[in-house]
Amino acid sequence: MYKRLILLVFIIGFSVFGAARTPEKTDEGYRIEVVQDTLRRNQEKEIIFLSPEGKVVKTIEKSWYKTSVREENGVWSTEVEHVEDIPEKENAILLWKCEYKTPYDPRGRGEPSPVKHNYTVEVLNKKGEIVLEKEFQVYPIGMPAIPYWSTGISKDGSTVYVYYRDSSDVFHVEVYDTTEEKLAETSYPHEFNADMQISPDGRIFGAKTFKKDVGKCLFFLDVETGRTKVVKAEGEKDGKRWWAVIARIENDKRLVFWDNEGIRSSVRTTFDELPEDITPLFQIKK
């Protein structure tokens, strides 16, 4: 009995010691590189994922909205793939894929838009592994100029937002980290402008939008708390129309705005200090 106990202690101790010495699998030393296509005015050709030894472990074609169309039994299937963004730290890749079906060749002119798009958002780490994969059913709008879909990743590569329109004409924003945990979500009855932003640290999402009986507005979502703010961003002074846009969203929930005269008139504030109407923050120039 005593010998068995000693043997058991020895086995447990050896296992713990061995586990402690086993290196944890990380992406340290791996890197992402963008290969330029010198034959096409130095455009980005492909993205390669390299091991610490310099071996290529994965390659993604960096084409502009790679599209394929096929027909089967009178049903046309269209697939689109696009690399959306590479964070400044080059520690991840954000891409999306879209698939939809139509009873006609979608490449024909004047054909109506499909009723539903199936979008898949993917984030790949430096090893080329998919660390986030989410699917969304998105419903296009009859007017092509109105965005019904968008996605982006924070500059630190930690946070992804997805904006989309549902079948009830409601617009949604969902924010995830790269473990697929949903950090925040909200909805809004009006579409957002195409110029959507997320702060470098992923804490604030912002966009230009519209509000009934108010006009041009700016929409913000605090990812940490789930709070939203819709602030008035247009007015008139001395018979001159005026409006503001988001110049940039910075770390620590700091916001920078420009008016329609550009950088000659700008203000800085924070999400918590943001008023319902930002026009008084500006000294409007003639």
Distance between the termini: 95 Å
- Report the major sheet: 5 strands, antiparallel
Order of helices and strands: HEEEEEEEEEEEEEEEEEEEE
Rg over C-alpha atoms, rounded to the nearest angstrom: 24 Å
- For the secondary structure, the number of strands is 20
Strand order of the largest sheet: 4-5-6-7-8
Query: Which structural class fits the helix and strand makeup?
Result: mainly beta
**Which residue ranges are poorly predicted, with pLDDT under 50 across at least 5 consecutive positions?**
5-24
Mean pLDDT across all residues, rounded? 85
Helix content: under 10%
- Give the CA-based shape: globular
Strand content: over 45%
Number of helices: 1
Distinctive features:
about 290 residues; mainly beta; five-stranded antiparallel β-sheet; 20 strands
Short note summarizing the structure:
The protein is mainly beta and about 290 residues long. It is built from one helix and 20 strands. The protein starts with a helix and ends in a 16-residue tail after the last strand.
